[in-house]
Amino acid sequence: MTTTFAGMPDEGLAFLEDLEERNTKEFFDANKAVFKEQVQAPFAALVEAAAARLRRSVPGIGQPKVFRIYRDLRFSKDKTPYKASMSASIPSRGPADGDRPGVDTGYYVNVGPAGLYVASGLYPPSREDLARVRAAVADQELGPELEAILRRAAGKGLEPWLDPLRRMPRDWPADHPRAGLLKARSLVLNRQHERAPWLQTAELLDHLLADWKAMIPFNRWLERVP
């Protein structure tokens, strides 16, 4: 049985907007009830409903994780204590699949005053996983298959985020036909939806699911990396 999601309340989005400008413990503590009822609870309902629906297409996904709104300040120059948006991720494979080949991927969502951000893929990869992915990109069969997946994803409004190196990795020539992908330090598909009225309705769930489902072939390619 899943929680019903009816949209992100206007009061909750307004709170996050205020939090961007008044990012203090005093402001947050004074409005903690608003945060819990108008931000945290509806976002958790969104993630739970989205995971339940995604599981129909990807039965093996793991349990979703909603990230805390508190920022990790240990290694950050920015000492503001709170994030001004809510985010969550779902691993593409559960704990029982840990010994399967391929790399571990996931599905990500962020909701806040800027709108809806959706992503999936490999971020940040370990050095070993990145080496395996690059070898697959260079492969004569797997590489063109990934290019085709990315072309189809682009037709659905998704864009790759690669965080590329300036120079080609030393194992491949600079004129390699998939040089752009081989330079990638991460391999992510993403989409930013600008803030719109549907953010406050159940239609938000539909937009999120449409993007996640369009990302499934991309994640499955990564999971097949030898």
What are its keywords?
226 residues; 7 helices; alpha+beta; 6 strands; globular
Report the total helices.
7
Shape: globular
Structural class: alpha+beta
Strand content: 15-25%
The biggest beta sheet reads: 6 strands, antiparallel
Physical arrangement of strands within the biggest beta sheet: 1-2-3-4-6-5
SSE arrangement, N to C? HHHEEEEHHEHEH
Radius of gyration computed on alpha carbons: 19 Å
Task: Report the helical percentage.
Answer: 40-55%
Give the integer mean of the pLDDT values: 94
| Poorly predicted residue ranges | none
Number of strand elements: 6
Distance between the termini: 37 Å
Indicate the multimeric state: single chain
Explained architecture:
With 226 residues, this protein is an alpha+beta fold. 42% of the residues lie in helices and 15% in strands. It has seven helices and six strands. The protein has a six-stranded antiparallel sheet with strand order 1-2-3-4-6-5. A hairpin with a 2-residue loop joins strand 3 and strand 4. It starts with 9 loop residues before the first helix and ends with a helix.
